[in-house]
Amino acid sequence: MPNRKSSDSNRSAKPGSRQASTSIAADAPSDSRSGSAGEGTVLAQATPATDASAGPAVSSPESLSAGPPVIGPSRPPGLNPVKCDPVSGRYVYKPVGTELLTFTVRVDVDAPYPQRRISITVSRLDSRNAAHVVAEVTADQCLAYNHRRITAVVVYRNGNPDLMPGDQVTFEASREKATTYQNYALTLSVAGAAIRRYPLTFDSRYFDAVEFEVDRVENAGEPVLKYDTASHSNRPADLPQEVLSLTAVYQRAGFAATLSPNGTVIPLSAAGVNGTWSTAELHDAMVTYWSRYADRPQWAMWMLWAARHDLGRNVGGLMFDDIGPNQRRGAALFSESFLFDPPADDKQGAAWRQRMMFTILAHEIGHTFNMAHSFQKALGVGQGAPGDPWIPLENEPEARSFMNYPSLVAGGQAAFFSDFRFRFSDEELVFMRHAPRRFVQMGNSKWFVDHGFVAPELLEDHSDWRLEIRPNRERNDYQFLEPVVIEFKLANASTLEAAVDADTLTDGHHMTLFIQREGGSTAQWRPMVQRCDKVESVTLKPGEAIYAAHLVSASSVGWLIDQPGFYRIQAAAEVGPREVVSNVLRIYVAPSRSDEEDRLALDYFTEDVGRALVFGATPALSQAATTLQELVARCPSRAAAVHAAVALASPKLRNQKRLEAGPGPHDLVIRCEKAAPEAAAAQMAALTNAPDRAADTLGHIRYFDMLDSLASALADAGDEKTARQVMKRSVTTMKARDVLESVIRTAQRKLDRMK
C-alpha cells in the first residue's frame, strides 16, 4: 500500500482561503530553449478548440450546466505560450482481432478541480478477471502545438496485477492538421522501459454518467435543485455569482449528471395518512415505485423530498438503502428538519434556508456515492493497516465540503459558509473519480466497506470512557435461528462531568462493531440505516452512561451470525477525537434441534427477513412475512418465534403509508393501512404472558420499548384498559429484573397518567 502524499486538499481550509484552483501548473522541467515548442517545454494555458468531435474540447459554461469552462493547465509566468488543448475525460481501448483485454482510462489533469491522476480499469472478455490502477501525474508536457504527453507513477493497485503490469503509465494526445487532438495512446513502462502501448478512443469528457430521480411529497414544499450563489452575503468574496444546479455540482465532480424526467409529486390525500415517514416506509416506497429500481448496480439513485421523519425534527436526512447486496441507491431529505432553521440573528433567513437545503441535498446524494462524513472517514482505521482496499482515509473535520456538517467546523456554520465553494474535498474527488468503480457505483460495494475499516485489535482505547457490550441474560447461549440482540453501555469513567453526543450509540455514524466466528474471518457489522441527526450532547456525571440496543445477527452487509458455533464480538465508539473499545463478548449459537428449523433456515437467513426483524414486516416484505408466520406456527416455543411475532405485529401499531400508482404514467398516490393495535397485542401476547423469556431474547431496551409502543397504540385507539394492563406488566417486569430506577420511574409516570 503506497503512502498517501500530502495534497492541496481543502481539509484544513481557513476562512478567507482559497481551495484548489481549476487549473494546474506543470511540474515538468522547462527546456533549455526557454519559450520554444520543443521537447520538454512546460505546459501552457490552453486555447479554445473548435472541433468538438475529436476530443474533450474547451466547453462553455452553458455546456457544463452553469459549470466553469474545462480549461487546460496554467502556464507559469514568464514563459511563452504553447497551445495545448485539454484532455481530461474517459477513454477506451477496444480489443482488436482475438485480443481479449478492454481498457477504460480516466485522465484527470485539467477538468474542474484537477486531481492530477490517471486511473485505468482493465478486464478480460473471457473471464471475470479485472484490475484497477491509479497513477499520480509526475510530468505534463506540451511537445509543440500537436502533441501532449502526461507521465504518471502507479500508486495504487486492485485486482489481478498480471492484467496491468508496469510501474509507470504515459498518456499521449496528438494531431496532425486538425484543430483538436485526434490520436490518443497509453503506454505501460517498467523501470522507464516501455513494455506495451495501446491506442485509445475518446469516449466522454466525464468519467461516468449518473441519473438522479427526485420525488417529493406534497406537504414538503419544492425541492431546492438550484441555488443562486450570491443570494446570501456570507460567502467567499471571490465566489462567482451563478445559479448553480444540483446536476452541475456532480458534473464538476466528474459525472455526466442528469435529472430523471420521472420526478413525481405525491399527494397526501388518503384518510389517516400522517405527514411523517418511517425508515421502513421509505425503503418500501423506493423498492416499489422508483422508476429505475432494480436489484443490481447502476449509476442511478432515488431521492424522496419529504416533510419529516417519524423520529421528529432532529433527523435532517438519511440514506435508508443500507441492507442487502445492492445498497446506496436511496436517500431522503426532510424539509421540516432542524437543519433548515435559520439562525435567529440572520437577516437573510430565506436565502440561508435555500442554501442549506441545497447543500444537504447534495450531501445526502454524496452518501450514495459511498462517501462518509468528512469528520468520520477514519473511524476504526489503523495507521498503515494491512489489507486496506482503498488508500487510507483521514478525517477532514475542517473541510469546506458538501460531506461536512457546517455546524461542526471551528467557528460554526457562519465560518463554514464564508469559505464554502460548493464542492467536494480533493480526497473525496480522488475517491469519486478514481477508486475502483464498484466502490463508488450505486448498488455495488456495500456502504463504506471499501474505505479501510480494519480489525478491532488495531483500535486504541481511551481511559476516560468505558464501552460495555452485553446480552442482558444469564448465559451467552443462543438457540439456532434466534437473533442476537446486544446492549451497549457507554459510561463516563473519569472523575469529572463529561459531554458526549447523545446519538453516539444509535445514529449509525459513531460506532463500529466487529464479529468473528471462531476459526473464521472478522466481519464488520453496520446498522441498516444512516441518519443525519441534529448534534446534541448530553452531560454525564462520573459513572453515568448512555445505552442502546442493536440486533447484530443481520447487518447491512447480510447475515453475520447464521451458523452454529462460537462467536467473538467487539465494538468501538467514536467519542470526540478518540476511539473507545469495548470488552470482547463471546457467545455460543447452538445447532438446529429439528428438521423444521433446518427447513425454515433456507428462507429465514435472507435479506428481507433480516430487514423485517429490524424494521418490521411491512407490506413490501410479503415473502419475509410469510416466512416469519411459518416460524411462529411451526416453532412457537423457540426464542426466534418471539422476534418473529414482534416483527409481524409492529407495523400494526401505526398507520402505514403505502405508495401506489395513480391514473397517469408518472402519478403516485399515498394509501393508508389503518393501525390494528388489538391484533398486534394478540400477536405479541408472549411479551406479557412470558415476560422473562421475552426480555431475555429481545433484551431489556427492545422489550420495554415494544411494550411502551403497544400501550400507546392501544390508548390512542381508545382501549385504555388493555393499555394499562400492558404498562402494569412492563413496570412489574422492570422491577423484577433490576432495571435502572430512572427507567422504572418514567414507565410508572406513564402508567399513572392512564388511570
Task: Give short descriptive properties of this protein.
755 residues; alpha+beta; Collagenase (Catalytic Domain); Immunoglobulin-like; eight-stranded antiparallel β-barrel; disordered N terminus
**Can you tell me the CATH topology of the largest domain?**
Collagenase (Catalytic Domain)
Side-by-side strand order of the widest sheet: 1-2-3-4-5-6-7-8
User: Which CATH class of the largest domain is shown?
Assistant: Alpha Beta
Q: How many strand elements?
A: 34
As for the number of domains, it is 3
Q: Indicate the overall shape.
A: globular
Give the low-confidence spans: 1-54, 57-81, 379-389, 447-462
Largest sheet: 8 strands, antiparallel, barrel
- Gyration radius over CA: 28 Å
What structural category arises from helix and sheet content? alpha+beta
Q: Strand fraction band? A: 25-35%
Summed up, the helix count is: 16
Question: What is the CATH H-level superfamily of the largest domain?
Answer: Collagenase (Catalytic Domain)
Average pLDDT taken over every residue: 79
> Any idea what the CATH architecture of the largest domain is?
3-Layer(aba) Sandwich
Straight-line N-to-C gap: 66 Å
Task: Estimate the helix proportion, in percent.
Answer: 10-25%
Region (Disordered): 1-82
Biased composition (Pro residues): 70-79
